UniProtKB/TrEMBL annotation:
Enzymatic class: hydrolase
Annotated protein name in UniProt: tRNA-specific adenosine deaminase
Keyword annotations: Hydrolase, Metal-binding, tRNA processing, Zinc
Quaternary context: Homodimer.
Catalytic reaction list: adenosine(34) in tRNA + H2O + H(+) = inosine(34) in tRNA + NH4(+)
InterPro entries to which the protein is assigned, alphabetical: APOBEC/CMP_deaminase_Zn-bd, CMP_dCMP_dom, Cytidine_deaminase-like, MafB19-deam, tRNA_aden_deaminase
Active site: 50 (proton donor)
Function summary: Catalyzes the deamination of adenosine to inosine at the wobble position 34 of tRNA(Arg2).
Cofactor(s) in the UniProt record: Zn(2+)
Binding sites annotated in the UniProt record for Zn(2+): 48, 78, 81
Origin: domain of life: Bacteria
Amino acid sequence: MRLALDEAERAARNGDVPVGAIVLAPDGSTVLASGHNEREAAHDPTAHAELLALRRAAAALGQWRLADCTLVVTLEPCTMCAGAIQQSRIDRLVYGARDEKAGAAGSLWDVVRDRRLNHRPEVVEGVLAEECARLLTAFFRDR
Ligand SMILES: [Zn+2]
């Protein structure tokens, strides 16, 4: 999560909402890919930290299926990213702060653990939650 927080800080430097993500290999410690929110930097509404990290991890592995990998992200994923997480078949999602306004992994929706879907990752929430939330609060306060 510390690495994801570093990524989040990179997003803020470009004027993007500070959200960072890391994908860990099946061994649980090798970093396969990282990403931070680049909506402003890339003029891309889909350039969320999680999507970029998932894409890069798949490219690094040479396969779209990210079974046994872990996605670590500073903020609870939105519906788009929850869909991508489901599509990637990733096995574990770890996130920091909850997003009560748009979260799709336990807050507003729980897309990733919807029993109607055939793949449901394990979800661990609240890791360094205060630090993750503080970054976001500071960003919006300073705007
Ligand atoms: Zn998202």
